[in-house]
Amino acid sequence: MNKKDKNLAFKIYLYLGALFITSLVVSNLIFQKFFIWQPFGELTIFGVSLFEISVGILPYPVTFVITDLVSEIFGKKKANQIVIAGIFASFFSLAIVYVSTLARATDWSPVSDSMFTSVFGNTMVAVFASMIAYLLAQFVDIQIYHFWKSLTKGKHLWLRNNFSTFFSQFIDTFTVVLLLCVFGDIDWGVFVGLVLSGFLFKVLIAFLDTPFLYFFVYLIRKRFGLKIGEEIDLES
Prior knowledge:
By secondary structure, the protein is mainly alpha-helical. It has 7 helices and 4 strands; from the N terminus they run H-E-E-E-E-H-H-H-H-H-H. The strands form 2 sheets. Strands 1-4 form a two-stranded antiparallel sheet. Strands 2-3 form a two-stranded antiparallel sheet.
């Protein structure tokens, strides 16, 4: 690979990392708002409306698409590096939120202390819970993805994309809802409903994002002349 292609490949990796970190941090900051996806608003599951979910779940599936794309094109090591960078960014954002809650608002501040605390007050608990779930889910996702990639010799992209995401997203949803219930942010009565509702939503998103993964993998492979199963080595 020539220097020009190497620089382009690095830029693609950098931008994917930026999208990953942004999606992760934002999902942790907006999680306290819940909504019902209207097409399924009439249906209930264990006392919870089907797809009665946090808006924080909306950008979160993007992180799994990106790790699958990075795994496919740049390899397991680079995917793990993005995950670690996401962890650092999340805890750094947590520190910023904590310091911001300590700063007293002025009398004329458009956002009062109580309003700020109401929106961001539980962020620290949420990020802690999310990070534990995230660590488990993302590393499991990458491990399963590369297991299927090796087993299928780089073929059947849809198989490893969906299988890795299904299993890892269940771990993520179960763990984060469990921890939020333990910390008292969510009532135990809606635990099962929120887990199943959140997981089913993520499964649906995983199905829907598969064509996009195929599309981007195709574009990158065509641009760099990669064969099926071949990866770009950014460190050589």
